[in-house]
């Protein structure tokens, strides 16, 4: 029996913030920026080396500050500097790295969380203080989870504690993979039994509708409080609607994949760099939050013990899954292979190739019923978004 650890982050909004907490945010930001500058000037990417060379001087400068704040500041500084170096190599960063956020990284020595009493005990330069937080329904599911690191974050809407929880889950036996092809307006699944399912999401219409609404507000209302409030209002509406859609989609995908034990997704991390279409298409694709949907699918799958793998997305929609030949358009979204005559919807082809690549990557034999398609004309079974609403409320 295989056991795997899963991590999830929960957000807790604090009811009140003591005056001294503002000074703590400022002090922490100063320390992190000092450490980033030191790491940048000495080209240090090791947390242990940075801590060794700076700890004594910082301890003298901030004698009342609990020492673990210095440890977490070193972790943040090295992480920011590493990220800066990567972006600079790609030509995306100039000057030097700077930490501007109102955030403090906390380890398990700096805070204690009590879900039942709805309290957070936080270590500060003036001793340990108790902070109350607003309860939320989803907080209850973390009662039996292990508490890990946390981040104290200050925003215009208040101060939040973002806590990482971990839990061990039993991993299911990996029998096969379900290939998942994510698109703007649909998600297509290739099942190991030779069937294909396409879920129509209407995400493109949702995003375009809210984009047009915001653009009209910007054109009709001059800059001011009312304009800002309206833009925020419709921005939150769009975000909530899409979050609801993503969770329902992920539930359906994981439900279909449970008996097989695996889900295969495309690794789309570099997709934005390859987008070269019209201005309208570029804007639409940049607004598509595929990574968020993938992360929701991944954590929901892990909770059920389902393995998630990411495969190379290159040519998944233009190579024949039967013979490997090049596919050509054959009217609409249908593609046809000139070698073997295979013909199917391009989304079906993409999901099928994703599943096959995952099987090859893991050395799982392709079942004999997979190559011949069971439905006529390469058309998948389709579900509208209303079906998902009825299934998952």
Description of the structure:
The chain is an alpha+beta fold and 393 residues long. The protein folds into 2 domains: 168 residues, no CATH class; 215 residues, no CATH class. The protein is built from 9 helices and 16 strands. The protein has a 6-stranded mixed β-sheet with strand order 12-11-8-9-10-16, with helices on both faces. It has a 4-stranded antiparallel β-sheet with strand order 1-7-6-2. The two termini are 34 Å apart.
Strand and helix order:
EHHHEEEEEEEEEHHEHHEEEEHEH
Give the helix tally.
Answer: 9
Low-pLDDT runs of 5+ residues are 368-377, 387-393
Largest sheet: 6 strands, mixed
Q: Tell me the overall shape.
A: globular
Structural class: alpha+beta
Distance between the termini: 34 Å
Q: What is the spatial order of strands in the main beta sheet? A: 12-11-8-9-10-16
User: Helicity level, as a percent range?
Assistant: 40-55%
**How many DSSP-defined strands?**
16
Oligomeric state, counting identical vs distinct chains: single chain
Overall pLDDT, averaged?
A: 87
Number of domains: 2
Q: Approximately how much beta-strand content do the residues carry?
A: 15-25%
Cα-based radius of gyration, to the nearest Å: 25 Å
């Amino acid at each position: 029996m295989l056991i795997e650890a899963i991590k999830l982050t929960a957000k807790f909004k604090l009811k009140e913030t003591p005056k001294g907490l503002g000074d703590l945010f400022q002090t922490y930001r100063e320390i992190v920026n000092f450490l980033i500058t030191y790491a940048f000037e000495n080209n240090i990417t090791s947390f242990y080396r940075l801590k060794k060379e700076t700890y004594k001087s910082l301890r003298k400068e901030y004698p009342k500050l609990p020492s673990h704040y210095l440890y977490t500041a070193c972790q943040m500084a090295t992480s920011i500097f590493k990220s800066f170096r990567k972006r600079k190599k790609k030509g995306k960063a100039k000057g030097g790295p700077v930490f501007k956020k109102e955030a403090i990284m906390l380890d398990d020595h700096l805070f204690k969380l009590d879900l039942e009493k709805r309290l957070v005990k936080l270590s500060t330069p003036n001793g340990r203080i108790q902070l109350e937080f607003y309860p939320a329904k989803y907080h209850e599911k973390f009662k039996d989870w292990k508490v890990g690191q946390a981040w104290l974050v200050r925003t215009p809407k208040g101060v939040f504690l973002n806590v990482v929880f971990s839990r061990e889950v039993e991993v299911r036996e990996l029998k096969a993979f379900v290939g998942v092809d994510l698109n703007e307006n649909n998600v297509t699944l290739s099942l190991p039994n030779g069937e294909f399912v396409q879920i129509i999401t209407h995400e493109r219409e949702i995003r375009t509708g809210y984009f047009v609404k915001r653009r009209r507000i910007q054109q009709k209302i001059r800059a001011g409080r009312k304009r800002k409030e309206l833009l925020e209002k419709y921005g939150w509406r769009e975000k909530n609607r899409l979050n609801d859609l993503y969770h329902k989609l992920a539930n359906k995908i994981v439900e279909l994949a449970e008996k097989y034990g695996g889900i295969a997704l495309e690794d789309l991390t570099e997709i934005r760099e390859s987008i070269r279409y019209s201005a309208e298409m570029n804007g639409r694709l940049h607004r598509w939050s595929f990574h968020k949907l993938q992360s929701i699918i991944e954590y929901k799958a892990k909770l059920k013990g389902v393995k998630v793998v990411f495969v190379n997305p290159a040519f998944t929609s233009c190579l024949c899954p039967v013979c490997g030949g090049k596919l050509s358009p054959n009217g609409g979204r249908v593609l046809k292979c000139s070698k073997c005559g295979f013909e199917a919807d391009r989304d079906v082809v993409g999901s099928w190739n994703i599943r096959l690549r995952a099987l090859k990557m893991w050395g799982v034999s392709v079942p004999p019923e997979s190559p011949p398609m069971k439905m006529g004309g390469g058309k998948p079974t389709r579900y509208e978004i209303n079906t998902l609403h009825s299934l998952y409320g």
